[in-house]
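We give the chain.
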Amino acid sequence: MDSYRLIVVGGGLCGAAAAYELAKKGAEVLLVDESADVAGATRYSYGGIAYWAGTTQLTNELCAAAKARYPQLSKELLGHDIQFRPKSLLLTIDAGRDPVEVARNYVCFADKPQLLTVAEAVEREPLLDAKNISGAFEVEHGHVCPVAMTQAYRQAFEKLGGTIRIGRVEKLVREGNVIQGVEVDGEPIASKHVVISAGAWSREILKEQGIELPLYFSHAEMIEVAAADASAVQMQSLVMPAEQKRFGLEAQMGEAEFAAQWQEEDKELMPPVLDAGVIQFQDGHIAMGQISRMQTSTAVTADAAASEAAMREKIRKVLPKVADLPGQWHSTLVAFSGDGLPLIGPVPGLENLLLFSGFSSPFVYAVPLAQRFAGTGNLASDPWLGQMLPERFVKAD
């Protein structure tokens, strides 16, 4: 039987970053993922780095750490280009909404976006439809290509001696309350510790072990436009709505009313929300959407044609020249936690099992936290990781 010091389950951005940092510290690490290609939430994400959006001492420190690390990350990862770039983000305000009222939602941020008039917003992004916005906020944002960044982490990990195994983790190998490894496509692989970083599937893995933690997921739907089909469009800014509904939806899931309902099968917890955003990547392709659905099943039940039509209709009001570009509808699962912070550290009730999952803002937090996770012996004593231990959700007797 093969044996490793550490097995990381999940090869998306968070898992690849954690595996790389652990290998960098000299650990013998196996990274397991179902796909050789970057897939799932990492593949269909916008790649935005909101290092201006800290609201507490902890998140401000994480944002500052990410902002300092990103400009040199491609060089560190063996020169593989993660396509990092500082980029202006415009947060559009719907027509009929009072910009001053909407601005109150941004007073909590460390770096407050600048409020622009309609004319100023259109000057920044000429593709905006001036008739359908009442202004916008502008802030300097960071941006990467999620696929390129994850591949860079994987390649650097292998260069350090790490091993990548493509296959499905069918179950954890367990003796009593001790996790002893994983079973991949029917083959048991031993390990001293297993790190679960499988995004939304982290919840399913824990559920199979009888562990209930507020690690949730949404179904996120978006449209991807290939670079060739977007060649006539050259966006000057990243564009997202100023009043994003997804984060409010996630925040509500941590409330007791909804937490209990996650035990029910195939239940829609709330009506879906639509946030009309459009991001053009450095290579020219476009991601636009998104619809977020809260339902307890991992199965996709959305009507793709109806969802795509709804997204295009909403985007047409803001960026009409982009809305009708030919593209492909996609749905993926996006993990988040019950309090907005990831779950990092030992899983209560099981030995040798750790989590590195539940990132609502993975491109901000995963980079500095993976480095800290790999380099900290006592996670509980770390000023960052000590606040993210899964045990924070376990009620004392």
About this structure: The chain has twelve helices and 17 strands.
